[in-house]
Automatic annotation (TrEMBL):
This is Uncharacterized protein (DUF433 family). InterPro entries: DUF433 (IPR007367), Homeodomain-like_sf (IPR009057), WH-like_DNA-bd_sf (IPR036388). SUPFAM superfamilies: Homeodomain-like. It comes from the Bacteria.
């Protein structure tokens, strides 16, 4: 499976790699990747940029600047390379990183084909095609702890794959401004879950990358 030949916004790149948008911008500012000059002030990244960022956040940070430079140069000179030795003890599985990115890129492409917005449905809020299910609401409920099974029970028109689409699409297309609550958007909560007070601290702890 090959990566799609396209350009990505920083948000799309973050969604495909699985890191924060801030991390993408920081990497660009620190010239972790040799990104060409942005067009009309807009930053875009290529497939190779995404591979470089994934390797940087996976193993690059433990390498010296010189070894990291050699790592990226070797990959640039041999785009089909599968593994390479970064130092005496570290072997980088480039093929696996490339495949993981390709799978995520395919998922984002499918999500973009399955989601649309029209003024006639929920005032233009993105929904899954042939439904009135708001995509951002599904992603928000997932991030708040709702399981896939709970969402499938509450929204019978969804599939597990569509829920995956909601998560990656929302990450790639963050809403501007202050996020609206469900009630402000006119959506109704179909179920509620009581959470013990001693569990709140556990839920609020950041997940390790």
């Amino acid at each position: 499976m090959n990566l799609l030949h396209r350009e990505y916004t920083p948000a799309e790149a973050a969604a495909v790699i699985g890191i924060s948008v801030k991390s993408v911008h920081n990497a660009i500012d620190k010239q972790v990747i040799s990104m060409r000059e942005p067009r009309i002030g807009r930053r875009t990244l290529t497939d190779n940029d995404l591979l470089g960022l994934k390797l940087w956040y996976g193993v690059g940070s433990i390498l010296s600047a010189e070894r990291r430079k050699r790592l990226f140069e070797t990959i640039a000179n041999d785009p089909e390379i599968e593994t390479l030795r970064a130092d005496d003890y570290l072997i980088v599985d480039v093929a696996r990183a490339r495949t993981q990115l390709a799978v995520r890129a395919d998922t984002l492409r499918e999500a973009e084909s399955a989601i649309h917005s029209t003024k006639d449905i929920l005032s233009g809020e993105p929904v899954f095609k042939n439904t009135r299910v708001p995509v951002r609401a599904i992603a928000a409920m997932r991030s708040q702890g709702n399981s896939v099974e709970e969402l499938l029970e509450g929204y019978p028109s969804l599939t597990a794959r569509m829920i995956e689409f909601a998560e990656i699409w929302t990450a790639a297309h963050p809403a501007r401004g202050r996020p609206k609550t469900l009630s402000e958007r006119g959506w109704k909560v179909k179920s509620t879950k009581r959470i013990p007070l001693n569990a709140i601290g556990k839920l609020s702890r950041p997940k390790s990358i």
